[in-house]
Amino acid sequence: MVDAFVAIYIGCPRPVVLAPYAKIPVIGSIMRAVGALLVPLSSSSKPSSESEGKSATNAVREALIGHKKSFQPGDIAVGLFPEGITHNGSSILTFFPGSFEGGGVIQPVTVVYPYMPFNSAFFSTTILDHVRKLMSTPYLAIRVEFLTPHKPTEEEAVDAKATAEAVRRLVSEGCGLPLNTIGAKQLRQEMKEEEEKANAAKAGRQPGKEMV
């Protein structure tokens, strides 16, 4: 959540937002004010379904490709968080290649939150808990660095995964964090399994076994 306000404050490019979120009071007004690239979704999609996740990913990919095709000098670029998930920030997860399809020069930006004694900027539980942590912190030190723009090579221009990996290495070098081998999908699965284990432990039973 903090990242979004930092981006607005420093005048970063347009955020990419799913259109349904623009209907939320206040948030929607902010997104429209900063010229967000709104990505429409099919009205038949259900937010909790796996198919909706795939639909959203495809919709974002198509919106980005369309933005790149129509982009003209002087237009405002879009800003993305290519990992696609919030985590503890101790490493760089794999990037979604769909963000890099269609070619174009990429401006890598790192946002670092030096902290002590705990990371209040890390959104890992609920919005209320996140706000509580933020409010209990006297101040947040945030370091934003614009790295050297990356122009895809001829090979990368036709291979979004190669472009994503090249930019990921630049970000890793820029902020001094190691590269991880997993991505958002695997991390979500791990988090889901950990949550299931925790819930099972609270219920006094093992996963897959019913209480008797």
From TrEMBL:
Residues 190-199 have a biased composition (Basic and acidic residues). InterPro entries: Plipid/glycerol_acylTrfase. GO terms for molecular function: acyltransferase activity. It comes from the Eukaryota. Keywords: Acyltransferase, Lipid metabolism, Membrane, Transferase, Transmembrane, Transmembrane helix. It comes from Haptolina ericina. The keyword Heme does not apply. This is Phospholipid/glycerol acyltransferase domain-containing protein. Its main location: membrane. GO terms for biological process: lipid metabolic process.
